[in-house]
Predict the 3D structure of the following.
Amino acid sequence: MNWMFASFFSLLSFGMWGFFSKLSVLHIDSKSAMIYQSIGVAVIGVVALTMMNFKPAMGVKGVGYATLTGLAYGIGCLFFLIAASKGKIITVVTLTALYPLVTIMLAYYLLQEAVSLRQCLGIGLAFIAILLMSV
């Protein structure tokens, strides 16, 4: 599977995630929704583990960073669900869609990944679009 197809499928999945998040917090509290969402993630984890014949890669740094990834995801999801339960999902999703800016800044400063002028322009336009959508 190439990266473009995977990115597009991820886009669709995250879009549905935001929508289903709002539906869940309309019917149960945000913390309960987080628990059931975590069960859903665990199911996908078991599917991935099965696809790997129950032999995931083991490297201390990789496992550590992957665990931090899960913790950051879980914290982000919990606060997203709290925000979704209190605000309009259109605004909450739009505002939280700024998260790539955090990734870009970290990659630029800590990984020394270059950001071209064209990419900066794209980031700026995306930021303006998000601001316009959240008003």
